Structures are given as structure tokens and as C-alpha cells.
């Protein structure tokens, strides 16, 4: 069963583990990297996979390469591969899932699952977003949907949000300001969503979750179209502390976030009702 965890709990698990499997989009310096490196040096089996070309930026790819080289030097099986977007850590069979790349300073959500093979947790972007889509589609008139994503684009999730707003659900969306500034198509998708009746604001955070009624979807998958086979995770969680954590984080950011205004022209870009993310 998925439950709320923390960076401190994750670090403690790595410190005593005999086997650790880790994945991230970016492998940055910090306490978690130090714990992985220490585990490798003391003889634990450490496997690390990170994205080969993060943000298609040479400097970040070089950072990943440097960190991986240090892990390899200390005995880990560490390498970069394409399509790695999941932020997961498995220590002796217990899984820890992060939605925002192991920030350590806060601003992310970490879940723990005692069963690393739990079928309730999707492990590809397509499957993860399908769970998010289904949660949104279950919302009825008058229900509240609060969704946060780093990147946002025209696709099944945006279409489901438009339809939910159209049938009377209260839809609020937080997107990353950094991603929005460099993506005109994202602005167009937001315009259609606002015209359907949703509210959209931008924030500096990069979390990925949705609170829909009494349930929460949490994952590492952005609400964008494409790359559905890349490694990501996502799950619908009924645990009250997880839902309350996400709701609190959203409310705190919403109060200081910027309002996004729709351009004057362009028709809403609804996705057909039967359009679903393929797992």
C-alpha cells in the first residue's frame, strides 16, 4: 500500500540496504547521491539509471555523466539511457517514488510502497497518465479537481480536464512557469482549458499530482502528449495523508501563483471522449 514518505526515510533505507536500484531524470549532487555512493563503496549492489539527454542540454547531460562515473568508480552499475523519466528508488524490495526528481530541499512528494512490484503503480508514462485520466473522468458536476504538472500539453489529460470543466467540475491547474515560458503550444492548450471554465496559474514548482474528490493521483509523468513508452510512474492513492499532503501543497502554491490569461482567439482543443492514453 502506498503511503507518504520523506527524504530522511529514503536516506535511511539506502544507508542499511544490501541492494539499491535508482532512477532519475537528473542525478545531481546532494545527500541522496552521497548515500548511493556510500552504499556502493561498502559493497551493496547499486544499480543507477538516468536520462541520457536531459532537456536536450549538453551541460546537464555532462552533469549526469560525471555523477555516473563517480558511482561506477565506487562499484555501482551506473549508466545513462534514453527515455528515463521515472524517479524511483528500491531498497531491499521496498520502493520509494518521487514526483519531482529527488529535490531534497522539499517541494516534492515521496511515496513508499513495501511491495516494489505492486501492480497498482504504473511504470510507463502512458499507463501512468491513463490512471490520471480515469480519475479526472470520474469527477462529476460540483467536484473539485486540483492538478499540478511541470509541463502541460494538448492530449488526453487536457481533454479530460476540459470536459470535466464543461460538465460543471471546478478545475484548477498549476503549471511550471519555466516550462510555460518556452512553450507556445502549452500556452495554447491553457487557453482552451480556460475557455472551458478552468482556472490556470503558474508556479516555480515542478510537482505532478492531481487531487480529485477523495482521491489523489501522484506520479512522475507530465500531463503532455507523446513518449508514452518512456519510464515513468504513477498511481491513484486513497490514503488520506497523501491526499491531504497534495491538497495542502497545491493550496499553498495557488495562493501565490500567477494567473494565466488566454489569448483572444483560438477554439478549444477538445480530445474525443474515447481518446485514451495507450499503456
- The helix/strand series, from N terminus to C terminus, equals EHEHEHEEEEEHEHEHHEEEEHE
The tally of beta strands, per DSSP, is 15
The helicity comes to: 25-40%
Secondary structure class reads alpha+beta
Question: With helices defined by DSSP (H or I, 4 residues minimum), what is the helix count?
Answer: 8
CATH class of the largest domain: Alpha Beta
Task: Return the average pLDDT rounded to an integer.
Answer: 92
Task: Provide the CATH superfamily of the largest domain.
Answer: Endonuclease Chain A
Our estimate of the beta-strand percent is: 25-35%
* Main β sheet profile: 8 strands, mixed
Radius of gyration: 19 Å
Give me the CATH architecture of the largest domain, please. 2-Layer Sandwich
Low-confidence stretches: 262-279
Task: State the end-to-end distance.
Answer: 22 Å
Determine the CATH topology of the largest domain: Endonuclease, Chain A
Shape: globular
Quickly describe the structure.
The chain is built from eight helices and 15 strands. With 279 residues, it is α+β, with helices and mostly antiparallel strands. The chain is globular.
List strands and helices in order, with pairings:
Layout: E1 3-4, H1 7-16, E2 19-24, H2 31-41, E3 45-51, H3 58-73, E4 77-81, E5 88-91, E6 94-98, E7 110-113, E8 122-124, H4 125-137, E9 144-149, H5 156-166, E10 170-176, H6 177-181, H7 184-195, E11 199-203, E12 209-212, E13 215-219, E14 231-237, H8 240-254, E15 258-259
Parallel strand pairs: 2-3, 3-4, 9-10, 10-11
Antiparallel strand pairs: 1-7, 2-5, 5-6, 6-7, 8-14, 9-12, 11-15, 12-13, 13-14
